[in-house]
Amino acid sequence: MSVAPAAPAWMAIPLDGFGITMTIIYLAVCTVGLAGNILVMVAILKLDKMASATTVYIFNLALADGLFMVSLPFVAIQNFRHEWVFGELFCKLFMVLDAMNQFTSVFILTAMSVDRYMALVDPLRFAHWRTPRNAKVVSAVLWLFSLVPVLPMALHVSVYQGACTLTPPPGSDPRIWMLAFISYTFVLGFLLPFTLMSASYASLVYTMRSQRLRQRYRQVGAGTSPSLESHRLEKQVTKMVVAVVVVFGVCWIPFYTFNFYSVFANDVANFARAFEFAVLLSYAWSCANPILYACFSDTFRCYFRTLLLPAQPNVDHHSNAAVTERYNLTDADGRDGSVVMRQSRSH
Length: 347
Fold this sequence. Notes:
This protein is mostly helical. The protein has 11 helices and 2 strands.
């Protein structure tokens, strides 16, 4: 979702090694991201059957991320040729769908953060909320809600001076209008979700630490050893928190920084290459999510191995419900489990 004004100077990068390299990287990110997210969706549909609220959210995130990857070849071609060659109508469709998938990814990731918090803090109390059915309803509502920040694009996106970009309405101050629009998308697409995710994960880690300390005091008083499993689980969740929050922030902060800078600066052409890299980084967020699953989830590693190496023996994924519920930090019936998280982008 490109919200920065695209004057000719932004696009007028000579066809050199940088332009060719960026085009190749765009296509590589698209290929890896699309393949990875399709693999996640197939794994959930075929092996997990959407048996938990978490996998419902992950499926929708993978769907939004995969659709977001589809737009990358068009971005690559525009950057390679320094012009939009697909027409006015497709420009509007491209920008609206691109933005919708981006906002949906962020919104669903935020819902997952709240779900993780409820799963740990009071699993019994929130068990009736954290069902696959309710997760599907929440996901559907978030897909529809993502249209709210996207609707202005349908009205103000057009091909301007060879680029598919936002164009301020006639009679308005372009700088003020663009600043208002960038601020609007920044608050809805980054600031509020990032704040809520950070607060949820900070509370989650604090709760786990407090529970472990209380357990340690009870064990010391009883003359027993502290639980190594509790400590291992805390470390796993802490690593997941760092991965989710840091990757999301690293991939999106440069993009919004350049967008805000472009409103006030008169030398944006000097930063055209850096801005292009920031746009690529925002797309790379969706590409990274399947990799995060493989790194942090034993269950997803098993799923991927089953799909990619079917000749190798694997455990029966449908033998009991505990497999799918391993996504929960603490299930409603008290079982401990693995943790998996994932996230998504905008521009």
